[in-house]
Structure formats: C-alpha cells, structure tokens
Amino acid sequence: MRYDQPKFRLMGDRSLLVELGDEISPAINQSVQELFVGLDLQQPQGILELVPSYRSLLVICDPAVLSVTDLKQLIVETHNNLDRSQLPQPRTVKIPVVYGGDYGPDLLEVAQYHHLTPEEVIGYHIQPTYRVYMIGFTPGYPYLGELPDAIATPRRNTPRTRVPRGSVGIAQKQSGIYSVDSPGGWQIIGWTPVRLFDPRKNPPSLLVMGDRVQFYTISAQEADQWQPDPF
C-alpha cells in the first residue's frame, strides 16, 4: 500500500528514514524516486546525502544546520508539492547475456528447481522489461524487478565468496547484475560483458533508479568480441 503521507523513522542522530509504502511495487518506488528528485533539485542546506531504496528514502543530514522538525516539514512540503515534470524520463538499456555453462553455473539447478528446461528459464528471464528499483549493495549494482513467478527462486543456501563482475543473478522475484567482483548469494544464470560501473566516468554508474532493462541472449564468442559501449 502506498501511503498518502510519508512516515518517519529516526535512524540515529543524523539520519531520517522516510517510508512511502509497505510493499515493493512500481508505484511506491516511483514515489520514492519523485521525492528523491524533488529534494535533490532543491539542494537544501543541511541535507548531506539522499539514499533511495525500494519503498523508502534515507535522508542524512547535519543536525546542527537542520533540525529533525524542520527536516520533516521540508520533506512533507516537498512530497505534497512535487513537480513531476522534473522527473527524468526512464531510459531503456538493453543488456546482452551469455546464459549457462561457466557463465551461468546455477542455470541448470534453477531449471531443475522449477521442472523447466534451461532454455525455458532463459525465455522467462528475457521476457520482461525490468524496472531499476534501486542501486546498491556494491557501486552500480541494479536491483531489477519483477522476475516472472515461473522462475522466482530462493537465494543459494551457501553464498559464494567471489562472484565475477558481470554475473547476472536471480533471487526471489528480483534479478541483478554484479557490477564488481564481490561475494554473493544469488543464483547465477548468466554473464554480461557490459560494464555497469566505471569510477573514471561521470556518472560512474551505467544505470540509475527508474531506468528500464531488457536482457537478450548472445553467444560466448560474441561476448569475447564485445566492444564496450561508452556511457
């Protein structure tokens, strides 16, 4: 359910969590994005950082400059007077994926879990246009939804200590792309040669909250020959 008005939770003496709903949904995530953009464009004195997520926005502030009472009032006024024309139009980014084999070591297990063939799992995975709900976990890592129910799969019982950059994973009704080498517990079904995060670029992240992602299949040979697109 999307809330009519924000709900607040104090997160220590420098942060306020602004909740805009009680579930994961495109509509609630859109509200989070709108509030994030509205506050970001104002750049009010005292707000140090804004961290959007599925259904809430973490506001980190300097309490010596902006009191909690004034911060709450600012957030409510911004929420109630949003200029939605300022919200950036979502981009659709197409991501090539090599599925299965060494590139997707969990594809067969996911197929067996759902009594499907690997080809059917791939077909379900490339079917949706995913929403980028948020960026997190590691720099540039996109949380994408929603995965079709037919291949919604629990996380691995034992996480891997290292998942290669570019690995495409699924967990529950989410999909994601590992932006850097890192530990991880998602089911890895493929790999993309696309680089999602490059600290030398501005912006450093290929995807942002609200973007759309479409996956499509490529061969291992095509991946080896892939020329990265600038972003």
Describe this structure in words.
The protein has helices spanning 26-42, 68-80, 107-113, 118-125, 220-224; strands spanning 2-10, 15-21, 47-52, 56-61, 92-99, 130-135, 142-145, 160-163, 167-171, 174-177, 182-184, 187-191, 212-217. It is α+β, with helices and mostly antiparallel strands and 231 residues long. It folds into 2 domains: 2-86, Gyrase A, domain 2, CATH 3.30.1360.40; 92-224, Cyclophilin. It has a 7-stranded mixed barrel. The protein has a 4-stranded antiparallel sheet with strand order 1-2-4-3, with helices on one face. The protein is elongated and about 55 Å long. The two termini are 36 Å apart.
Question: Helices and strands in order, then pairings?
Answer:
Elements: E1 2-10, E2 15-21, H1 26-42, E3 47-52, E4 56-61, H2 68-80, E5 92-99, H3 107-113, H4 118-125, E6 130-135, E7 142-145, E8 160-163, E9 167-171, E10 174-177, E11 182-184, E12 187-191, E13 212-217, H5 220-224
Parallel strand pairs: 5-13
Antiparallel strand pairs: 1-2, 2-4, 3-4, 5-12, 6-7, 6-13, 7-10, 8-11, 9-10, 9-12
Give short descriptive properties of this protein.
13 strands; seven-stranded mixed barrel; Cyclophilin; 22% helix; four-stranded antiparallel β-sheet; Gyrase A, domain 2; 2 domains; 231 residues; alpha+beta
